[in-house]
């Protein structure tokens, strides 16, 4: 049984990777075996001519669904960096280079099968990408976006399939990364240990290249300009819970007036979540007014600055003290209880997130987050039904 399961797993893994890499040899148009990548296209200087003049037009291939297609990649620690579907116009923050070889601006794109290439307004609404010794184009593609230019990106040298830390990939579980050389954008395929360039119908390849990577060495960050969206606040409350209780006893034969005082210390927990982590060892602060919530009323204090990182909770102790005066009948015992509800306020906010890098860069973006306040509220004190004292000495 184990052998059968392992066999099925092997088949599934093989099928899932068929579309990701070409074999070391593939069939030519006449059915003969050809070596891949094509040795004649290695380290070649592409001709500087218009595609129509060379007679090599990129083949138009529409691949909405690709066999063995894999999950789209996400950058959880760098959420301003994302792949966005092409909708007919460039999204804000599209990542680009100036291609001095062709004298045009090229934008980073990826086709449905995960190969990366270039989009340029000068060449039409297509992503041009390398695959199987040829340059292809498709109108179904994704564009790499760095919203507000917030993530610090840099091109790092690589060779023979090497990639630097934090390299930008196109799909999860695929060893294809955004690359370039002096001739333009393409893909770095670590399986074939080379950079592949789409150019005038052909797929040129090179052993030396540059890889797009995320420069994550920021030394400090701060959150400022916090604006609470008061109209969007939501309140939630739990059922009442017992906070404190006290018994009042009257052994006298006449009604007496008694006062019961109850107290309980509780904790107010507040946190500001922006949905992104903070690198270890980074000095992180927030400057914001502190919301004060009493049941469903809201006030905001003057701005304070304090250390902060995602997941950190700011706490404050609150003591609830309540007194209750009552008349207790002869030979009776009364229980006084204090109850409260755990109340949660969830209020969105916008803020400016600024990061300070070791290389002197300062980058800012608009962040949206949530302020969460959890505390005990709706505190009440009441007397339960008084009961006769068992076996009390009778009154005459």
Description:
The chain is mainly β and 396 residues long. The protein has 2 domains: 193 residues, no CATH class; 170 residues, Proaerolysin, Chain A, domain 3 (Beta Complex). Helices cover 5% and strands 53% of the residues. The chain has 2 helices and 26 strands. Strands 17, 18, 19, 20, 21, 22, 23, 24, 25 and 26 form a 10-stranded mixed sheet that branches.
Shape: rod-shaped
Rounded to the nearest angstrom, the radius of gyration is 34 Å
Instruction: Note poorly predicted spans.
Output: 1-33, 50-55
Q: What is the distance, rounded to the nearest whole angstrom, between the alpha carbons of the first and last residues?
A: 89 Å
Number of strands: 26
Report mean pLDDT, rounded to a whole number: 86
How would you classify the helix and strand content by structural class? mainly beta
Reported for the largest beta sheet, the result is: 10 strands, mixed
Spell out the helices and strands N to C: HEEHEEEEEEEEEEEEEEEEEEEEEEEE
Q: Name the helicity range.
A: under 10%
Note the total helix count: 2
Instruction: Classify the beta-strand content into a percent band.
Output: over 45%
Number of domains: 2
Pfam families: DM9
InterPro entries: DM9_repeat (IPR006616)
Protein name: Natterin-3-like
Organism: Pleurodeles waltl
